[in-house]
């Protein structure tokens, strides 16, 4: 008898659309990975460590150099005072960080998901025996409200997953929304698991506000980050969790039996990056913002209706001006007939609705975006 949570899962929409993209020679604006590798200096630092060592098991919570660099980063950007010994755990990507955090916090009881939601959250919490309760955001504003949060929270709520900037819709929750969340959390016994992998990829001068920076929230927040997104090194799968020592002790206990640790050379490469390579990340944000603008203007001219995008790698657009098909049918037709792969938004909602929105990834070279736009133009002319 297999675990019903995992036996019920199919292929993810990302794998499905990427396979179709390869099959049809399509330009892939589907899956969210950059097509240019991050800084050479970071890769050289990792490669030196690979040759010279250390190459044996690093400490379970991560190399001291990286934990210190992460504490320094959190101080520099948000003013947090983290103790690298007790408040930081290095993981094999944010996916593992999220799994360890959910395993540590959710048992029986309920976990609140904000939809659209990243696809790894629900299966893990359900496998832990928790039940998901959903706060569903609505287009075009996708705002988080206190009323919706209060309706989802119950005395059984153990945790809420908060992804900001939010994949796939590019929302960055503002102070008002986070204060509403903080009030609801303060009235509960729940913790927030904050998926902040796109923390630096925030546009138009908007600040990224970690929930943990609000009064009373540091004690009940776990922050998850990803070096892959920060330094365009997604294949390295180096991530982390930071939070208060009492919670981090339990998170570390879960982490030790998932991966225990992460390649020491990659950890040292990322430690170097956090200390010397943040200029890359800040420039990446400017490049991505310009890509967003080019893509938004181009697709608006073709009949898509782009929605606001405040951060992340992703721009979403309404397709009703172009078709009555479902988002999925439309994306499958587009990849076959126009040679451009996008991602339908409906798989990010448990009930598959709305199904009139598609996601474009703009973390690509400008030439790739231009080629996708040229193909779409030829198709819709
Ligand atoms: C919202 C969100 N969380 C977590 C992850 C996983 O990050 P990592 O590749 O570091 O595991 C992703 C990757 O796309 C993401 O978009």
Task: Walk me through the structure.
This protein is 42% helix and 15% strand. It contains 14 helices and 13 strands. Bound molecules: pyridoxal-5'-phosphate. The site of pyridoxal-5'-phosphate has 14 residues, from helix 5.
CATH architecture group name of the largest domain: 3-Layer(aba) Sandwich
In whole angstroms, the N-to-C terminal distance is 53 Å
Structure classification: alpha/beta
Distinct compounds present = pyridoxal-5'-phosphate
Task: Give the strand order, joined by hyphens, for the main sheet.
Answer: 2-8-7-6-5-3-4
In total, the number of strands is 13
Work out the radius of gyration: 20 Å
Outline: globular
The CATH class of the largest domain, by name, is Alpha Beta
Short structural summary:
With 381 residues, the chain is α/β, with parallel strands linked by helices. It has helices spanning 4-7, 13-23, 40-52, 64-78, 93-105, 121-127, 146-152, 175-186, 227-230, 245-255, 264-276, 278-300, 327-337, 366-380, and strands at 27-28, 88-91, 109-115, 130-136, 157-163, 191-195, 221-226, 239-242, 305-306, 314-318, 340-341, 343-344, 357-361. It folds into 2 domains: 4-38 and 279-380, Aspartate Aminotransferase, domain 1, CATH 3.90.1150; 40-276, Aspartate Aminotransferase, domain 2 (3-Layer(aba) Sandwich), CATH 3.40.640.10.
